[in-house]
Amino acid sequence: SGTKLDGYQISYINSTDIWKYAEQVKNIIISDDKIKPEEYDHKYDLTTTGSKKIYGYLVDNGDDKAKYDLYIVANGVIYAPEDATGLFSFPNVEKIQGLEFVQFDNTTNMTAMFMNNDKLTSLNKKAINTSNVTNAAYMFNGCDKLNVSEKDFDLSKVTNKSYMVNKNLSDLVK
Fold it and tell me: What does pTM read for this prediction?
């Protein structure tokens, strides 16, 4: 839930107005407030708990004017929700930077968290703490260009890892 933590919990992005632009998001940049866009097309409050805010800024992507870069910015630690289903599941994202600014310590459900990000080629996997996750089904399913393996994560508490990547790992990981 994140309310007892010293930081700010990010909301379900797919339940905010930002989601209507999901197919137009090319890059996701997560940062503290030192890297905040000066100019933006849209600004959204993504906070669920905490006295300060997490904002999402949609900025025209310089290379492709039909696409946006999504900046997720907070002045402090950003905590992922306990249920992070589909949190970063944007179909045209090519790059996600700054996962080290997000704490996943209390996250137990990462179902489809990056699902169908078929243009994503790299990710800071070390920043994704899965030590309390029980459901990782479809977490990276459809991320065809991403080199990801069950060996990259602590799956000791996971009870559902069906199709975590592009094949069913239930038979491979015991």
Answer: 0.86
